[in-house]
Amino acid sequence: MSTMSVFNSPLLLGFDRFEHMLDQLAKSNGEGYPPYNIEQVSDADIRITLAVAGFFKEDLQITLEQNQLIIHGKQSEDAGRIYLHRGIAARQFQRKFVLAEGVTVAGAEMDNGLLHIDLLLPIQKKDVKQIEINMKGSGQNIKTISSPNNVD
To answer: What does pTM read for this prediction?
Structure first.
């Protein structure tokens, strides 16, 4: 059974990357650990905050792969400890966020068991461009755009 994509319309050109991002989100696991907040700090700044109590800076890794921000945490086991009761499990996690094109990571910091990751949103240009319409046979040269793979 094939699924119909909302991006199959001939009026939506160049949205194949966006469709791929939505597929990535749908395939990502729905685990709720660790809990997180996403807040709009200003018009151009977003902060992701993850509750990572019990993790040290060395237990966490933040990577940016293409358009995915990946936070990975793995607590190391202390072999010297003997637990009479263990209610706090040493667990690992991986949390992924898909970033829009142009979003950059400004930095990350730990504070009282919270990992803060600051993102910068691109400034939206509000350009309006008038496209000139040429008459066929008017003698004006019309430029064609070719892909880098095509050789003239």
So the answer is: 0.68
Round to whole Å and give the CA distance between 72 and 52: 11
Q: Around 112, how many Cα atoms within 13 Å sit in the side-chain half-sphere? A: 0
Domain count, the chain: 1
Residue 131 falls inside a structural domain: no
In a domain, 47, yes or no: yes
pLDDT tens per residue across span 22-74: 776 666 656 678 999 999 999 999 999 999 988 999 999 999 998 889 999 99
Domain boundaries, position 81: 32-120
CATH number of the domain that residue 48 is part of: 2.60.40.790
**DSSP β-bridge partners for residue 94:** 72
Q: What is the pLDDT of residues 72-100, one digit of tens each?
A: 999 877 778 888 888 776 788 999 998 98
